Amino acid sequence: MNIKKKILLSGIVVVALATIAWWLQKTPQAQDLPAYTQVKVQRGDITSVVSATGTVNPINTVQVGSQVSGTVQHLHADFNDEVKKEQVIAQIDPAVFRAKLAEAEANVKSAEASVEKAKVGVADAKRELDRQKSLFKKQLVAENLRDAARYAYDSARVEQQVKEAALAQAQAAREREQVNLAYTTIYAPIDGVIISRDVDVGQTVAASLQAPTLFTIAKDLTQMQVEAEVDESFIGQVRDGMPVTFSVFAYPGRTFKGVVKQVRLHPTVEAGVVKYNSIIHVDNADLALKPGMTATVSIEADKRQQVMQVPPSALRFVPDLPEDELAVLRKQLKRNQRMLWAVDGDDLVPVAVTTGIRGERTVEVISDQLREGMLVAVPEKRKAARKRSIGLSLF
Questions:
Q1: This prediction's pTM
Q2: Helix or strand or coil: residue 360?
Q3: Contact predicate 366/356, CB 8 Å
Q4: 73 vs 22, more confident
């Protein structure tokens, strides 16, 4: 064998080995799994639920504030204390207000004395006027003296009115200081439980702009409410009187029940989403629910009994058929109808259905062609099954 033949044979062998190596190392072809699976049409009860989150709060709370500024001298109530209406719960230092009241009372006495003095002046002016009139009738005095006496009498009467007005002002100021002094003692406005205390002894409260809050009192913790924020997409389904179930993180295995009491019209906007506040009343006889807890709410918007239902994915399934054939089937659908595909052996048969309410996992479907237990197709997530028959990895 000459050199050229050896080189040619060696080249053929190298090419053959490279081809075999490439075939063994190439990416295996993916084998698609079936395009759908089968589920049965079921008959049963279905409930349409509107989900939301909310906060547990007492139905009636009162924020107790101070209408006067001063230093907190005593606190007679604390967190979780039960209080009765008109019970003293705090005391603002009254020393300054007592001094102002004493000053106002002194001003009243001074004004009263001024009024008495004015009355004496009126009486004296009246006597002088009467004397001048008598003398004028006898033509013993000139007319101007009679007129001067009349002017003095009128001036004395006006002066008495001014002093009486000053007395009324002083009395009003005294009443104001009496009220301010009374405001230094803080009373509970209702029977209830203190759920918040916002001040401590020695703290100064300023009531110049608005009344500072000292306590928050809940009237009755055995009756609570959940303030649930419902998305505008679902608020049309929510009405007063609907039953509600909800859970809180503190009791993961427990379900609480309530009733929608009110759907408030005032909207709130969070991150561009419009929501409406729905008030849900809840019985809390065992005091398990605490103010401020976060509730995961399910509002029962509608309920149907013994209806046909399928998973929502069954309504999204589209078989691998020519587009023109699918277009013809779509045109045959009436308004508000959807298409299900019933499994008949190896074939798929289209069934036009009308959808009803949507539950958490199923959708109500209505059609004369549906039967309980009928198999319908639902899409299955396509997966690639890799399989290598033989071969060795050379790299």
A1: 0.68
A2: coil
A3: yes
A4: 73
